[in-house]
Amino acid sequence: MGMERWKGMVAGIVVALCVSLAWHGGLWAAEKPEPASGVKAETAGTYRIGKGDVLEIHVWKEPVLSRETFVRMDGMISLPLLDDLQAAGRTPMEVKKDIQKRLSEFLETPEVTVILKEAKSQRFYVIGEVAKPGEYELTTDITVLQAFAMAGGFTEWADKDKVMILRREGGQEKRIPVSYKDIVKGKNPEQNVSILAGDTIVVP
């Protein structure tokens, strides 16, 4: 009888421990909030932050240090404890690592997420015979075919063989002819060029 009572006590302790671990695990998950939507440092790739961009800096369990910030015209951002930090010309991942390194002087193993909320410095334009002409954010490397897709494709009146990309280089305007039909047929795949910030794609 004593042995059965002892076994019952052990079983009760095991159940209590399991419940406690499950509860604390759920609490930990609840305490670690998901950052707002946007382009995270891990997925922003080679995007270089520019003046005017809007970043969201999230420091886990440190709401006072977490904030949305604007990249000033001098390329800097301001954060509590760190004062000014260079952001322009760097990738979100580089900014994340710099913030974590500098915060480690004040916090133990800080967890930082950098989200590109608005890419105001990196934009291109599509005008003419497309479904959605206008201004588009350039948050990652894209080609002219991908730009057409972002603009909703061509209208029925579009001249797909006479597309022109207008680009500023060295203070002068450069014109890059593009034939959509040749690209998709594989005749001139080199015409499927990468889009740069400031490009204007003209679809006659």
TrEMBL record:
GO molecular function list: polysaccharide transmembrane transporter activity
Domain Soluble ligand binding: 124-171
Domain Polysaccharide export protein N-terminal: 43-116
Keyword entries, A-Z: Signal
UniProt keyword Signal present: yes
Transmembrane regions: none
Top-rank taxon: Bacteria
Gene3D superfamilies attached to this UniProt entry: Outer membrane lipoprotein wza domain like
Protein name according to UniProt: Polysaccharide export protein
Native source organism of the sequence: Desulfacinum infernum
